[in-house]
UniProtKB/TrEMBL annotation, chain A:
It comes from the Bacteria. The lineage of its organism: Bacteria, Deltaproteobacteria, Candidatus Desulfacyla. It comes from Candidatus Desulfacyla euxinica. One of its GO terms (molecular function) is ABC-type transporter activity. The keyword Transmembrane applies. This is ABC transporter permease. Coiled coil: none annotated. PANTHER family: ABC TRANSPORTER PERMEASE, ABC-2 TYPE TRANSPORT SYSTEM PERMEASE PROTEIN. The chain crosses the membrane at residues 21-40, 60-87, 117-143, 155-179, 191-213, 287-312. Keywords: Membrane, Transmembrane, Transmembrane helix.
Automatic annotation (TrEMBL), chain B:
The keyword ATP-binding applies. Residues 7-238 form the ABC transporter domain. This is ABC transporter ATP-binding protein. It comes from the Bacteria. It comes from Candidatus Desulfacyla euxinica. Coiled coil: none annotated.
Length: 319, 250
């Protein structure tokens, strides 16, 4: 434990005092602040004329202002935090010759990688909690909405999921920093994988679905084909951690959402009906809906870290 | 005088794929001596040191360091052994004191204890005036001395020094050699030293071993090696001549 704590302390110190952390934090804080501000402005308009809404506080996070909501923003650019914190974790120490020095001290070798990962996770947690608190405080001051108990719980769960999500990317970046000797390669590889998994999968899902179950618009549309098409699209896009995360958090943060699936085959009257008689879902039910998503996110995070751990432990010090 | 063996390897072998880096090495280092480990580049000296530290897994054979098996008890071995790698690296944004503090932390030293120790060591290696300077601005000689200070934090019984004088100016090299000799004499630290500078090795080592292509081809005091090859004592032949003779025959 002694080695783990020493590495953890040093890494955390490095993160918190580094320029890259300050710049990243400033950027993310600024954007989140702006989106919440936009949400707040829109909320005032939206709330006018309504007798009461149940969860006005969460709308600060979930209402898309000008372009996207705070929740969507974290889904898109949160991974960047993880990547930036981890892409040179091991290979920088290898090139500057400090890795061999550290592991020739009386510590277990895994203290190095565990300490680095934990320090990264702590940094991510600090960052996210700070941002959520700032936005909450801003909501209290600017809009004057007070969060209820359930809203606080929902925000708490949202934070936990987000920390795991960004930690997945941290783990991935650390894995690449172990696999690739050069820092340029590892950073490019992790960014490439991020772009692929986050942006190209959803495009790819569309293509796959239309190839396997093409909807023939000219003839009469068969409901089974449309269903099949939607099912395949969803299945493929779930292989993207971003979609997984977006689905999970959107349901947690917005009690009006009752399913992670997109509603299809719905006539205008049906839509109107469902919008007219909506009531929020209890917290327990929201969790039940996204439980598989949460488990999957935690699983890929742990698997990713486990792979880095094993590779690091088996790698020759000298290569 | 009979002294205890502190490092012993039997048939130690390391293969990387098809390449054999260390081939059936049988080495004995006695307690309290300075052992010069010689051999051309790529002969397997560093690999041997890594296996002795438990940082690399031998393909065959085993080693004992301070009575411990480095494969099973790597952490305990590393408690007793200080290793100064060739081209030791430092965190560039740390100064000498911070760098030493981190190593002290990794060794589990208490803060107060560490502070005293660091102060003492900075004095010993002559870096007291540069204590607050970032390591990025250190010269090669200063880095090497800081590296020595770092390995001394744990009060080692054995020191592994991989090319400690490589790239140092003559004055720096002599200072470092004197430091190593005084550590050996005063603190009775056993030193296993790999180097290409035969003149320096001859000056300080009690015994030497010559390693070529992964095998130890000679081991003993310089006197005995000279006698074996030329039939006369050390005074007639320098280590350089002895080494070349072995090298040509190998």
């Amino acid at each position: 434990m002694q080695g783990l704590y020493a590495v953890f302390k040093k890494e955390l110190q490095d993160h918190l005092s580094s320029y890259r952390f300050v710049i990243l934090f400033a950027l993310i804080a600024m954007v989140s602040f702006i989106t919440s501000y936009m949400a707040a402005v829109h909320m005032r308009e939206n709330l006018e004329g309504l007798a009461s809404t149940r969860f006005p506080f969460l709308m600060l996070f979930s209402t898309p202002g000008a372009m996207f909501s705070m929740v969507q923003f974290v889904a898109f650019f949160g991974p960047l935090i993880g990547l930036i914190l981890g892409f040179d974790a091991i290979n920088r120490e290898r090139t500057q010759g400090t890795l061999i020095k550290v592991i020739s001290q009386p510590i277990y070798r895994d203290a190095v990688i565990n300490g680095k990962f934990l320090a990264g996770v702590t940094t991510i947690a600090v960052m996210l909690v700070a941002i959520v608190l700032v936005i909450s405080g801003f909501g209290l001051a600017f809009v004057g909405v007070v969060p209820g108990v359930e809203e606080i719980w929902r925000l708490f769960i949202y934070l936990i999921i987000s920390i795991f999500y960004i930690s997945f990317w941290l783990g991935l970046a650390i894995l690449f920093s172990i696999l690739f000797k050069s820092i340029a390669t590892s950073s490019l590889a992790s960014v490439a994988l991020w772009i692929f998994l986050s942006f190209f999968i959803s495009l790819g899902a569309e293509v796959v679905a239309n190839t396997v179950a093409p909807i023939d618009r000219k003839n009469e549309v068969q409901p089974e084909v449309v269903l099949e098409n939607a099912r395949i699209k969803e299945l493929v896009s779930l292989s993207s951690p971003m979609i997984l995360y977006s689905n999970a958090t959107a349901t947690i943060i917005d009690p009006m959402r009752k399913t992670t699936r997109s509603l299809i085959l719905m006539g205008p009257m049906e839509e109107l009906l469902s919008a007219r008689f909506q009531s929020p879902l209890p917290l327990g039910q929201s969790i039940v809906i996204v439980f598989p998503h949460i488990i999957a996110l935690i699983a890929i995070t742990l698997i990713c870290f486990a792979i880095s751990y094993v590779v690091f432990m088996l790698q020759e010090v000298r290569t | 005088m009979e002294t205890e063996t502190i490092i012993e390897t039997t048939n130690l072998t390391k293969r990387y794929g098809h390449q054999t880096a260390v081939n059936g090495l049988n080495l004995k280092v006695k307690e309290g001596e300075i052992f010069g480990f010689l051999g051309p580049n790529g002969a397997g000296k560093t690999t041997t040191l890594l296996m002795l530290l438990g940082l690399s897994r031998p393909s065959k054979g085993h080693a004992t360091v301070c009575g411990l098996n480095p494969l099973r008890m790597a952490r305990e071995v590393k408690r007793h052994v200080g290793y100064l790698p060739e081209n030791v690296g430092f965190y560039e944004d740390m100064d000498a004191v911070q760098s030493l503090e981190y190593v002290a932390d990794l060794n589990g030293l208490k803060k107060v204890e560490a502070r005293e120790k660091i102060d003492e060591l900075l004095g010993l290696v002559g870096l007291k005036d540069q204590a607050g300077k970032k390591t990025a601005a250190f010269s090669r000689g200063m880095k090497q001395r800081l590296g020595v200070a770092e390995v001394l934090i744990k009060d080692p019984e054995v020191l592994f020094l991989d090319e400690p004088t490589l790239g140092l100016d003559p004055e720096g090299a002599i200072q470092l050699i004197n430091l190593i000799q005084s550590l050996n004499e005063e603190k009775e630290i056993t030193v296993l030293l790999s180097s290409h500078n035969l003149h320096q090795v001859q000056k300080m080592s009690h015994r030497v071993g010559i390693m070529i292509d992964g095998s130890l081809i000679a081991e003993g005091s310089i006197d005995s090696l000279a006698e074996e090859k030329f039939g006369v004592g050390e005074k007639e032949y320098s280590l350089e001549e002895i080494y070349m003779k072995y090298f040509q025959e190998a």
